[in-house]
Amino acid sequence: MIVIDGLSKHFGPFTAVDKISFSVARGEVLGFLGPNGAGKSTTMKMVTGFLAPSAGTARICGHDIVTSTLEAQRVIGYLPEGAPAYGDMTVRGFLKFIARVRRLSGTQADKAIDRSVEATELAEVLEQPIDTLSKGFRRRVGLAQAILHNPPVLIMDEPTDGLDPNQKFEVRKLIERMSADKAIVISTHILEEVDAICTRALIIDRGHIVADGTPAELMARSRYHNAVSLTLGGRTTAGTAEKLRALEGIESIEVSPRGEETTFTLFPARRGEGDTLLVDAVARLAREENWQVRALYGEAGRLDEVFRHLTRLDKNGKEAA
Amino acid sequence: MNELLAVFRRELGGYFSTPLAFIFIVIFLFTMGAFTFYLGAFYESDQADLTIFFNFHPWLYLFLIPAISMRLWAEERRSGSIELLLSLPVPLWAAVTGKFLAAWVFSGLALALTFPMWLTVNYLGDPDNGVILAGYLGSFFMAGGYLAIGSCLSAVTRNQVIAFVVSVAVSFLFTVSGLPIVIDFFSSWAPQQVLSTIASFSFLTHFNAIIRGVIDLRDIIYFVTLIGTWLIACGIVVDMKKAG
Predict the structure, then answer these.
(1) Which of A174, A191, A220 is the last residue of a domain?
(2) Exposed e or buried b for every residue in B184-220, given b needs 16+ CB within 10 A?
(3) For A280, which of A57, A196, B128, B148 is 20 to 30 Å away at the CA?
(4) Number of domains in chain B
(5) What 3-state class would DSSP assign to A151?
(6) Most confidently modeled of A283-292, B20-29, B214-223?
(7) Integer-rounded Cα radius of gyration of chain B
């Protein structure tokens, strides 16, 4: 439903987004990741028609954002970065304005407003001017505005920024509920969020796509993928690490003591294989040695590590110092 | 059209949801009155018409109208709501016109509230109400001209103070382009045709013709064209900012 084709944006000599292409299908929740200044917001601004692309275009449900801007904008719900709104209006007044612009009127508009107010839990502040609301409420007003016309395409720039953990949870549930019949793009800094709600993650850095895949696929690129983490209590000696290292299929071990506990991270030689044999072997060894096991698990991989690795590569593909 | 109306209603509501509308109208009426009665010596003139009153309009508008227009776009840019507005399915012309019309209706309302002046002259004497109506009409169109200039210049910046100052300066040029202050600068070297063209840009020339009670179609066309041109310029400025 979203097809982005060679989208570029130059600001003078600076290239913010450099010929990126991807598409998002119905039912997908695409997590758009990248460091600050990587071009996430610029891309979203172009896709929603706020910025004109320097080259390339985006088609939203078949409507070209450059040549049929209004038709494309009608099928998009957009939460801009920072959730801007008209602060002097009440929440109700603001949503009514959005409904009018979206060509909803009468009972249709009332129903749409009720529905999105309920979904974003705004009922208690409906008559308050937006300027007087807390950051969390303002963000939810932005969300309510974006989903008001039940758009097939939803684009949200940091939808959970400024929300407390409960509100974040609610917003994620809301996105999950809506995801079945929509194409959704969210940008975020919160990597756990990607794992929690995104069906696909796309990492961009300096205007280029550096990774595209399911969260699981991205995590498989982590050094920690299929590694085994073992936390022992009590005193451990150098001998403990040696015994672990002696296990079959271990390539290397990292030891990180923390207070009374020590965590060993065991990296298998063949990381591609997702079997649990290594975990079993470690468990057996721990029983035989009578170690005080506090935690033992196989790691799926760490998204933050993949993210750091991919976005710190310099232009020649080498890792920056 | 729906979108234009939505923007218009939002914008007009925006004036009244803050003390801005109230403060503006009070100050507008107060200065209008003070200028007419004290500076203009309205009673002493012993004339049952509103010429003195209307004569002050260009000069008051010069400072008061940019105060209305400065927020039109600069405020949206500062608060970031422009991103919301321009990503909604609102045609650019509808956003530009909706905002302008809201400001124009608001200034028209302020102007209409000077009706006690009209009551006063009718109580004191027997004025030509047709001339007065023409004066109000001319004043309203002139306000539109100042607003269109201010609207365009407000789109250039995110800083309302800059928008205000630049609007006053440009409006000043348009107000006085028929007076010696501008003409003298050109008269020594420019041909007569250029001089009369420059002079014809003056708000004062056209407004003074109207308040004498002569509604010449050319004067109305002048203001309508001026408004149209500045609004188109405003649309171009907003569109150019989209290109980044």
Answers:
(1) A220
(2) eeeeeeeeeeeeeebbebbbbbbbbbbbebebeeebe
(3) A196
(4) 1
(5) coil
(6) B20-29
(7) 19
* Of residues B3, B7, B2, B6, the one with CA closest to residue B151: B7
Asked if residue A87 and residue A28 are part of one domain, the reply reads yes
Q: Phi-psi bin for B15: left (phi > 0), alpha (psi -120 to 50), beta?
A: alpha
Residues A51 and A101 in one domain: yes
B88 vs A89: CB contact, 8 Å cut-off? no
Looking at the complex, report in whole angstroms how far the Cα of residue B158 sits from the nearest Cα belonging to chain A: 15
Pair (A27, A45) in one structural domain: yes
Query: Final residue of a domain: which of A188, A220, A252?
Result: A220
Q: B240 and chain A: CB distance < 8 Å anywhere?
A: no
Residues A70 and A208 grouped into a single domain: yes
pLDDT of B35 above 90: no
Which residues in chain A (47-86) have CB-CB distances under 8 A to chain B? 48-52, 54, 70-71, 73-74, 76, 78, 80-82, 84-86
Confidence (pTM): 0.87
**What are A149-208's pLDDT values in tens digits?**
999 999 999 998 878 888 888 889 989 989 988 999 999 888 888 888 899 999 999 889
> What is the span of the domain harbouring residue B20?
2-243
* A157 shares its domain with A75: yes
Domain containing residue A190: CATH number:
3.40.50.300
Distance CA A230, CA A247 (A): 14
- Structure-token pair, residue A216: 């699981």
Q: Are residues A141 and A103 in the same domain?
A: yes
CB-facing half-sphere around the CA of A122: CA atoms within 13 A:
32
Domains: count for chain A: 2
CA distance B90 to chain A (A): 7
Render pLDDT for A5-57 as a digit per residue (tens, 0 to 9). Answer: 999 999 989 999 999 999 999 999 999 998 888 899 999 999 999 999 999 99
Integer Cα distance of A24 and A296 in angstroms: 38
- ipTM here: 0.88
The answer to whether A102 faces chain B, any CB pair under 8 Å, is yes
* Chain-chain contact of A86 with B242 (C-beta, under 8 angstroms): no
- Domain containing A242 equals 228-299
**A253 and A166 fall within a common domain:** no
